[in-house]
Known about the structure:
With 240 residues, the protein is α+β, with helices and mostly antiparallel strands. It has eleven helices and five strands; from the N terminus they run βαββββαααααααααα. α4 runs antiparallel to α5 and α5 crosses α7 (157-165). The longest helix is centred in the middle third of the chain and has 19 residues, at 115-133.
Amino acid sequence: MSITGKITLSAVRELQPGDEMRDSELRGFGVRRQSSTISYFVHTRINGRLKRLTIGRHGSPWTPEMARKEAARLLVGIRAGENPAAERDARRHVTAPFEVVAAEFMRVHGPRLKPKSSAMYESLIRLQLTPIFKGKPIADITAAQVTRAHASWSGTPRTANFAVAVPQPIERRRLAPSHWRSSLPSCTARPVCRVTTPLQTDLPTDASPEAGAQAPTRKQHARAAALRRPARLAPLARRR
């Protein structure tokens, strides 16, 4: 049941389960009782959308007067352009471990992705990122840790580059603090894993350091590669 009146200690004590009371003196300030929990809240528009911000549960330190002062402070900040809801979410995700933030990202934004992209994100988070960063608060993950993780995936360069790019959409959706991505140059630059493989040449197979032969030069490599390429057909002469 919705009630309007001044929120006082006696009024709060008389609330029944399911009751919600709006303060008659401070617009946007309210209190509600669920089954056995009484909570103070602010209900107002933030960036054009109605938002409900929980101040805290009734009891020490939240009395009606303390909750009213906090509600007034929040409402003044909102009118000045602040967004307490976004700041609250950022603080919560800063202390949350990586796997919790990643799961929240997939829950909220996964349905908006294309099926192939969603499957790729889930695979990268489950197979590459979570085994390394599980249990670590997202704000504590450093650039050095990401660089070491990236190097450990050098056997699959394409997967490694996609994996270190995953934190970017997480930060853009404000699930991580704005300074997090900027502190991870490995993520923003998307470094390329370079896997060196021996070049094939047409040099004699018995040319080896043990036999006293010198290692082939780059020029010899290039000449051997050119010889292996198929000859290009000469262009037809233009008819006059």
